[in-house]
Amino acid sequence: MKRKLLLLLAIGCFCQFSFAQNCDPWIAQAYNQLYGRKPTSQECNIKNYNNGSWNNYCELVGYIAGYNRYKQGNFLKGDPWIFQVYCELYNRTPNAWELNTLNYNNGSWNNYGELKKYVQQYQTALSQNNIFPKIGELKGKTAVVFVDKNNNVLAVDLISKDGGQVIAAGGDNVISAGGDNVIAPGGGNVIAPGGGNLTITQNMPGLSFGSDRTIQSVGTKVISTAGKTKLVIR
What we know:
The chain has 234 residues and is of the alpha+beta class. The protein is built from six helices and nine strands, in the order αααααββββαβββββ. It has two domains: 105 residues, no CATH class; 110 residues, no CATH class. Strands 1-2-3-4 form a four-stranded antiparallel sheet. The chain has a three-stranded antiparallel sheet with strand order 7-9-8, with no helix packed on it. It has a two-stranded antiparallel sheet with strand order 5-6. β8 and β9 form a beta hairpin. α3 packs antiparallel against α4 and α4 crosses α5. It is globular and about 60 Å long.
């Protein structure tokens, strides 16, 4: 009986090892890119992703993001098409802030091509206005700090990893929610290339979403980005 049990365990281990060894290289690459790890034997099953049918690598990235969208875990979650677009256009995964659908025509699009256009508009608008979002960890929370090309802080928010929703906007609210220094994930790394931590002060503005009716009052900056989306710094 003992010998039979050992034989069954050996067969099981061999099958699992063989399955892992035969994992589609694109699936393995996508899991490393999206989540920084190898896929499990179950995740290697190509039938999980559009029943094993995709036209290119970035399309597969979108299917994998969709498959993992509702799983528990400490990794980015969001609209699978956004993952696919960033893969196609910029050869990278979107950061937590970029997963906020409101960045792209206030979260409204009819098809993949339309979303792709809005993502391009959004990135172009931010670049033209010298706004660059930096993502970091703030005492266990996710922060986004918007800086200019000289790394001066323009605005700061706390956001969720699941779709980049704003939890707290502005320095006063952010400090109340977590602390005063933003450090990139990994402990000791810094957000600003070649610089130190990005220090948050109480008087720093936050960034929120507006519309065509948003009034640009004193101390408020309204920036048109993609479609109907307006970014409001105040």
